[in-house]
Amino acid sequence: MASDVIDDVATTFKNGDAKQVAKYFSTTVELSILEKEDIYSSSQATLILKDFFAKHPSLSTKIIHKVTSNPNFKFGVILYTTSKGNFRISFEFKNNSDNFILSQIRIEENKG
Which Pfam families does the entry mention (predicted)? Predict the structure, then answer.
Protein backbone atom coordinates (compact mmCIF):
# COMPACT_ATOMS: atom_id res chain seq x y z
CA MET A 1 0.00 0.00 0.00
CA ALA A 2 1.74 3.10 -1.21
CA SER A 3 -0.89 5.48 0.10
CA ASP A 4 -1.55 6.14 3.76
CA VAL A 5 -3.82 3.50 5.32
CA ILE A 6 -5.45 6.15 7.55
CA ASP A 7 -6.43 8.23 4.51
CA ASP A 8 -7.75 5.10 2.79
CA VAL A 9 -9.93 4.10 5.74
CA ALA A 10 -11.18 7.68 6.21
CA THR A 11 -12.35 7.60 2.58
CA THR A 12 -14.20 4.31 3.11
CA PHE A 13 -15.97 5.87 6.11
CA LYS A 14 -16.93 8.90 4.03
CA ASN A 15 -18.38 6.55 1.41
CA GLY A 16 -20.21 4.54 4.10
CA ASP A 17 -18.76 1.35 2.71
CA ALA A 18 -18.53 -1.27 5.47
CA LYS A 19 -17.21 -3.92 3.06
CA GLN A 20 -14.27 -1.71 2.10
CA VAL A 21 -13.52 -0.95 5.75
CA ALA A 22 -13.66 -4.70 6.45
CA LYS A 23 -10.80 -5.32 4.00
CA TYR A 24 -8.53 -3.82 6.68
CA PHE A 25 -9.97 -5.81 9.62
CA SER A 26 -7.96 -8.25 11.66
CA THR A 27 -9.74 -11.56 12.42
CA THR A 28 -11.34 -9.91 15.46
CA VAL A 29 -12.09 -6.23 15.91
CA GLU A 30 -12.70 -4.26 19.08
CA LEU A 31 -15.70 -2.17 18.10
CA SER A 32 -17.30 0.54 20.21
CA ILE A 33 -20.31 2.34 18.77
CA LEU A 34 -22.18 4.82 20.94
CA GLU A 35 -21.57 3.17 24.32
CA LYS A 36 -21.90 -0.41 23.00
CA GLU A 37 -18.50 -2.08 23.06
CA ASP A 38 -17.35 -5.62 22.39
CA ILE A 39 -14.89 -7.72 20.43
CA TYR A 40 -16.42 -9.07 17.24
CA SER A 41 -15.39 -11.33 14.40
CA SER A 42 -14.62 -9.40 11.23
CA SER A 43 -17.94 -10.49 9.67
CA GLN A 44 -19.95 -9.41 12.74
CA ALA A 45 -18.12 -6.07 12.85
CA THR A 46 -18.88 -5.53 9.15
CA LEU A 47 -22.62 -6.01 9.75
CA ILE A 48 -22.62 -3.66 12.75
CA LEU A 49 -20.73 -1.00 10.80
CA LYS A 50 -23.06 -1.43 7.83
CA ASP A 51 -26.01 -0.80 10.16
CA PHE A 52 -24.35 2.33 11.57
CA PHE A 53 -23.72 3.69 8.05
CA ALA A 54 -27.35 2.98 7.07
CA LYS A 55 -28.65 4.91 10.09
CA HIS A 56 -26.07 7.71 9.83
CA PRO A 57 -25.11 8.43 6.20
CA SER A 58 -22.06 10.66 5.90
CA LEU A 59 -22.28 14.23 4.68
CA SER A 60 -18.53 14.72 5.11
CA THR A 61 -15.46 13.44 6.93
CA LYS A 62 -12.34 15.21 8.03
CA ILE A 63 -9.15 13.68 9.44
CA ILE A 64 -8.39 15.57 12.65
CA HIS A 65 -5.53 13.49 14.06
CA LYS A 66 -2.98 10.96 12.79
CA VAL A 67 -0.19 9.00 14.43
CA THR A 68 2.04 7.35 11.83
CA SER A 69 5.51 7.65 13.36
CA ASN A 70 5.55 4.20 15.02
CA PRO A 71 6.45 1.37 12.60
CA ASN A 72 4.17 -1.09 14.46
CA PHE A 73 1.16 1.09 15.18
CA LYS A 74 -0.99 3.69 13.41
CA PHE A 75 -3.87 5.70 14.82
CA GLY A 76 -6.35 8.06 13.22
CA VAL A 77 -9.30 10.19 14.25
CA ILE A 78 -11.90 11.55 11.87
CA LEU A 79 -14.82 13.89 12.33
CA TYR A 80 -17.82 12.20 10.71
CA THR A 81 -20.63 14.63 9.89
CA THR A 82 -24.21 13.42 9.29
CA SER A 83 -27.63 15.07 9.11
CA LYS A 84 -28.39 13.51 12.52
CA GLY A 85 -25.30 14.82 14.27
CA ASN A 86 -21.52 14.63 14.30
CA PHE A 87 -19.41 11.71 15.38
CA ARG A 88 -15.78 11.25 16.36
CA ILE A 89 -14.38 8.04 14.91
CA SER A 90 -11.01 6.78 16.06
CA PHE A 91 -9.31 3.71 14.69
CA GLU A 92 -6.16 1.82 15.47
CA PHE A 93 -3.95 -0.31 13.25
CA LYS A 94 -1.35 -2.84 14.27
CA ASN A 95 1.48 -4.06 12.09
CA ASN A 96 1.09 -7.70 11.11
CA SER A 97 3.89 -8.94 8.84
CA ASP A 98 4.33 -5.52 7.19
CA ASN A 99 0.56 -5.15 6.73
CA PHE A 100 -1.41 -2.80 8.89
CA ILE A 101 -4.62 -4.38 10.14
CA LEU A 102 -7.52 -2.54 11.73
CA SER A 103 -7.87 -3.80 15.29
CA GLN A 104 -10.07 -1.19 16.94
CA ILE A 105 -12.79 1.30 15.96
CA ARG A 106 -14.51 3.71 18.36
CA ILE A 107 -17.50 5.78 17.25
CA GLU A 108 -18.66 8.42 19.71
CA GLU A 109 -20.94 11.42 19.54
CA ASN A 110 -18.85 14.53 18.98
CA LYS A 111 -19.87 16.79 21.80
CA GLY A 112 -17.46 19.55 20.85
Answer: DUF4783 (PF16022)
